[in-house]
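Long-time lurker, finally posting.

We've been working with Diadenosine tetraphosphate (Ap4A) hydrolase and other HIT family hydrolases (Streptococcus varani) and I want a structural starting point before designing mutants. I don't trust myself to interpret raw outputs, so I'm hoping someone here can both generate the structure tokens and explain anything notable. Sequence follows.
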Amino acid sequence: MKECIFCHHISDSAVLYRTQHFKLVFDIDPIQTGHLLLISENHYESLTQLPLPVLHELIETEAYLVELMDEGTHFHVHLIPRTKNDGFWNMVDIEQIQLPIQSLLEKLKG
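Top reply, 14 upvotes:
Generated this for you. Predicted structure of Diadenosine tetraphosphate (Ap4A) hydrolase and other HIT family hydrolases:
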């Protein structure tokens, strides 16, 4: 089995927020200021594999995070078909802007 980068390369101090089934961290290769990853504690290859209680927790956690981030940002979800080594990150080129992430971090610490 291939080593999971999310299991072995994220220290507890890097976790910004945690629920029973998910942890929130900053993306190590962000496409925008405040780019976050919500990572499942268990391994799933697809969203369709999540048991309903975990799927509900995911949606509730996303809604909570959107509520915290909603100051001057716009929430949306991308569904992008991907293949291994498709070069996606090499093609992303957007203007980096300063967003009010400090207030988000303070809210997460609650």
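Before you design anything, note these points.
The beta strands are 17-18, 22-26, 36-40.
The domain at 5-109 is CATH 3.30.428 (HIT family, subunit A).
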